[in-house]
Amino acid sequence: MTAETLGISSAQSDDWALLLRDVGEGDAAAFDRLYRATRPRLYGLVFKTVRDAGYTEEVLQEVYLEVWQKAHLHSPVMGRPLSWLMMICHRRAVDRVRSEERHKRRTEAFAVLAAGAADAVAADEPVLVREEHREVRRHVAALSALQRQSITLVYFAGLTHTQGAQRLNVPVPTFKSRLRDGLVRLRGLHADSDREDVCA
User: Fold this and answer.
1) What would be one Pfam family of this protein (predicted)?
2) Which domains does the chain have, with CATH numbers?
3) Which of 36, 41, 68, 136 could serve as a FRET partner for 9 with CA atoms 20 to 30 Å apart?
């Protein structure tokens, strides 16, 4: 899909090129005009990839932040403005889909661990899935015992915070704190792994 197939005239494309140039010079008004002019088309493009309205909005925020930061780098040899924006959208949308798929695999792997079946991964299971299980085991091992127990009791055993605190014989505020700390730590470890994957 290109700017031409979307019915963008040369005159309109030229106008957007001027706006993009002004955005590159830090013109906030030009950025607002470019945003209003291109957002409907870019929203549709991103949504077709991520299939979720919330994720689409998040991806678009990332796209326009990148546009604001890198508009000064755009040149005619990189294509027309809309084509350049579409390229950024496609890359960001694909990255989001891959990130969500990794998160889903990790969640499934953690569910296996929480169910006490960490060693039940079949030998013929896809290599990628087995690697996700190993990665989750490493991340979970980095948590404190109370953090691991708190996450398991709430998210996989289905207990309330009060029930979980009673099971571990700790005050409810302590249980909530360890649960929150564990989730933050787990997300941080996942994010670090994602960054390493991108840089690899």
Assistant:
1) Sigma70_r4_2
2) 12-109 (1.10.1740.10), 143-199 (1.10.10.10)
3) 68
pLDDT, tens only, 126-165: 554 556 667 777 777 788 888 888 887 887 677 788 888 8
Instruction: Write down how long the chain is.
Output: 200
Q: End-to-end distance of the chain based on CA atoms, in angstroms?
A: 30
- One DSSP character per residue, 67-134 reads HHHHGGG--GGG--HHHHHHHHHHHHHHHHHHHHHHHHHHHHHHHHHHTT-TT---TTS-HHHHHHHH
Q: Which residues contact 186 (CB under 8 A, 6 or more apart)?
A: 139, 140, 143, 151
Residue 102 CB neighbours (<10 A)? 17
